[in-house]
């Protein structure tokens, strides 16, 4: 049952969708910025019901949500392109990243993701190569991680748009360090296979696969080609924030052991899912996978129970959900 406060939220989101969809262009301007700012602020507070799930809403609202996510993706791409061009006009573009209005969010998100990596790797200093899928014209996550956290790691950025990679390359070319450690590949990730085995960590951007079917296809492809034991960092959304970005559930990560899920409750929008590639003993689409690390059989199609607690002692505004996946010693 949807409560009154949630009905108000849904009505407001649908009203903003109507206004956004009627715009002639989603390029950054006063009206576009105002409407998307309103949308983000509407979706940021946690719903009154902690179990609020957009997938339980009516079919018409679901359709509006799907269209809204695509509009958000288009607007985000145009915003990043605009600021990438602006930053490239400076002699040292990376010295002016704070001109991007959401730069502080990326600093927080990158800090969070680095902290998560540190909890599941013995030594982050040993990471040689990272892939970021869906890096876009303003690859801030790669830039922040490379300059502030993983200062010896090579970053391979994948994007399907040639113009996005061209703009991103213009940003980092003047930097003597990043120009040697950051690489850009113009290709559909579904056409990348054996190269994926080279990466210890793969990041999947929130807007790669903007509906459930597309997202699962990409995740399955990564599961087929990533090295066993490698980590996958997936961006998702929770609660009302799922009106802005697609949701990735644990059962979507077939072929992976889901380690934990973090749901920010501050101005950072994306949830973060971290998972480890398993050693499969049968085809990836099978319902049974053996986890050699923990000597157990997992049923990855089952969404597991989640226990919430605070992951970072210094960050009380973050929730971690650890998935307790039940051992199955006998197959029925």
Automatic annotation (TrEMBL):
Q: Which Gene3D superfamilies match?
A: Vaccinia Virus protein VP39
Q: Which reaction does it catalyse?
A: 3 S-adenosyl-L-methionine = nicotianamine + 3 S-methyl-5'-thioadenosine + 3 H(+)
The top EC class, named as a word, is transferase
Q: What is this protein called?
A: Nicotianamine synthase
Alphabetical UniProt keywords: S-adenosyl-L-methionine, Transferase
EC number per UniProt: 2.5.1.43
Q: Name one GO molecular function term.
A: nicotianamine synthase activity
- Similarity field: Belongs to the nicotianamine synthase (NAS)-like family.
What is the documented function of this protein?
Synthesizes nicotianamine, a polyamine which serves as a sensor for the physiological iron status within the plant, and/or might be involved in the transport of iron.
Signal sequence range: none
An example GO biological process term is: nicotianamine biosynthetic process
């Amino acid at each position: 049952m949807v409560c009154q406060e949630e009905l108000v939220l849904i009505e407001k989101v649908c009203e903003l969708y109507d206004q956004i969809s009627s715009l002639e262009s989603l390029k950054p301007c006063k009206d576009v910025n105002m409407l998307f700012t309103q949308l983000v602020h509407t979706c940021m507070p946690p719903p009154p019901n902690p179990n609020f799930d957009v997938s339980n809403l009516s079919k018409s609202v679901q359709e509006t949500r799907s269209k809204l996510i695509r509009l958000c993706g288009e607007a985000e791409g145009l915003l990043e392109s605009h600021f990438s061009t602006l930053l490239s006009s400076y002699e040292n573009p990376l010295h002016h990243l704070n001109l991007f209005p959401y730069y502080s969010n990326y600093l927080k998100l990158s800090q969070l993701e680095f902290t998560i990596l540190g909890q599941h790797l013995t030594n982050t200093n040993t990471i040689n190569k990272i892939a970021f899928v869906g890096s876009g014209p303003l690859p801030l996550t790669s830039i922040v991680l490379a300059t502030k956290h993983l200062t010896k790691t090579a970053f391979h950025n994948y994007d399907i748009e040639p113009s996005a990679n061209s703009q991103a390359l213009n940003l980092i070319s003047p930097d003597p360090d990043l120009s040697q450690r950051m690489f850009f590949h113009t290709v559909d990730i579904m056409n990348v296979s054996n190269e994926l085995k080279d990466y210890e960590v793969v990041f999947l951007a929130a807007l790669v696969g903007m509906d459930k079917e597309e997202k699962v296809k990409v995740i399955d492809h990564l599961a087929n080609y990533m090295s066993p034991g490698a980590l996958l960092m997936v961006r998702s959304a929770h609660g009302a924030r799922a009106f802005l970005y697609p949701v990735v559930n644990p059962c979507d990560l077939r072929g992976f052991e889901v380690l934990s899920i973090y749901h920010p409750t501050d101005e950072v929008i994306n949830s973060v899912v971290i998972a480890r590639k398993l050693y499969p003993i049968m085809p990836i689409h099978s319902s049974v996978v053996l986890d050699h690390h923990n000597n157990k059989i997992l049923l990855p199609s089952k969404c597991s129970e989640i226990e919430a607690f605070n992951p970072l002692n210094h960050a009380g505004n973050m929730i971690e959900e650890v998935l307790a996946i039940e051992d199955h010693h006998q197959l029925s």
